[in-house]
């Protein structure tokens, strides 16, 4: 079952801006895993390109767009899948319950930062989103991490304390909060597939954090059909147990885009690497001669973006993409031909 959780953290010392995303946060993730499952943690350390998880940058509770590094997702109440449950609520310790799951998009504006211009001061409340695609590998971690509340861990040259965990799944004391609950959710692969539309031919995306792709051995910021949907198809096939053929992607084409390139810094170990990614909106349409099965499978991949980022460096916070509803997609009109 793909799922996203949010760790609510409190800084115990000043955290430099270069330690707020990228490699340093990946090392914090490894440390958290090794604390509760040393064998899995060591395996992940040896395979830093593992795509079964993705990490956001460190988020402030009240983000500001003054730095130009804040990326917004605007979405109204219309969703691609009918909402079958309310937003996650605080669960009392020892209470286990399994409500029906349905993929849902939060009604309010979602915020996600990729970079920071300033360090974060001590005693600052912040949060951090982690998404998992392989439930067989990671499912037990969330319950174990709940036992780490109020414990401190190194983050680069600073330290952070785990205050609480926000999640949308059966829990033992896991809690949720605003705005973090917008990013904490879960839905089984079967439910994502069965609830995907078999009639909606329009797919609208917004790139929330800078996104880059590898094509023919080169890095590009251009979000082509192949780059976006083959990434989603390969990861869906890897973890869902329901394989989609490569030629499925032949049945969709772009109809609109409003994409900008964004030069950003990605922090790796002891160096900073400039990289140009894409931000903005893009729309696709499924071909008119596609049958209901093809439509449902392409919509499944589109809905899968709730948990699965696209492109390269997703384990370092890049490639976060969200689907917008047809009614509320920003500027989602097809391109007009030039006369």
From TrEMBL:
Residues annotated as domain CRISPR-associated protein Cas6-like N-terminal: 1-81, 89-194
InterPro entries: CRISPR-assoc_Cas6-like_N (IPR045648), CRISPR-assoc_Cas6_C (IPR019267), CRISPR-assoc_prot_Cas6_N_sf (IPR045747)
Superkingdom of this protein's organism: Bacteria
All copies of domain CRISPR-associated protein Cas6 C-terminal, residue ranges: 206-320
Pfam families according to UniProt: CRISPR_Cas6 (PF10040), CRISPR_Cas6_N (PF19308)
CDD domains per the UniProt record, alphabetical: Cas6_III-like
Protein name (Swiss-Prot/TrEMBL): Uncharacterized protein
Organism: Phormidesmis priestleyi Ana
């Amino acid at each position: 079952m793909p799922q996203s959780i949010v760790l609510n953290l409190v800084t115990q010392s000043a955290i430099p801006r270069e330690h707020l995303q990228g490699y340093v946060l990946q090392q914090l993730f490894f440390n958290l895993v090794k604390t509760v499952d040393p064998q899995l943690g060591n395996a992940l350390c040896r395979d830093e390109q593992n795509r079964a998880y993705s990490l956001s940058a460190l988020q402030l509770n009240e983000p500001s767009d003054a730095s130009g590094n804040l990326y917004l997702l605007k979405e109204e109440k219309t969703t691609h899948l009918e909402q079958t449950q309310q937003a996650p609520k605080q669960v009392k310790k020892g209470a286990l319950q399994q409500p029906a799951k349905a993929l849902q998009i939060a009604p309010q504006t979602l915020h996600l930062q990729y970079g920071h211009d300033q360090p974060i001061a001590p005693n600052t409340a912040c949060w951090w989103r982690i998404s998992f695609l392989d439930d067989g590998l990671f499912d037990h971690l969330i319950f174990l991490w709940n036992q780490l509340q109020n414990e401190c861990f190194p983050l680069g040259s600073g330290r952070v304390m785990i205050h609480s965990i926000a999640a949308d799944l059966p829990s033992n004391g896991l809690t949720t909060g605003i705005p973090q609950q917008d990013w904490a959710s879960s839905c089984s692969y079967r439910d994502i597939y069965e609830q995907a539309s078999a009639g909606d031919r329009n797919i609208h995306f917004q790139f929330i954090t800078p996104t880059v792709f590898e094509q023919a051995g080169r890095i590009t910021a251009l979000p082509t059909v192949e780059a976006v949907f083959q990434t989603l198809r390969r990861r869906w096939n890897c973890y869902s147990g329901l394989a989609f053929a490569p030629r499925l992607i032949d049945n969709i084409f772009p109809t609109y885009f409003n994409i900008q390139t964004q030069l950003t810094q990605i922090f790796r170990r002891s160096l900073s690497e400039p990289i140009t990614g894409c931000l903005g909106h893009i729309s696709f349409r499924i071909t008119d001669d596609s049958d209901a099965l093809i439509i449902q499978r392409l919509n499944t991949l589109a809905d899968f973006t709730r948990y699965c980022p696209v492109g390269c460096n997703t384990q370092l916070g890049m490639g976060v993409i969200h689907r917008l509803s047809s009614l509320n997609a920003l500027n989602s009109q097809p391109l007009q031909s030039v006369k």
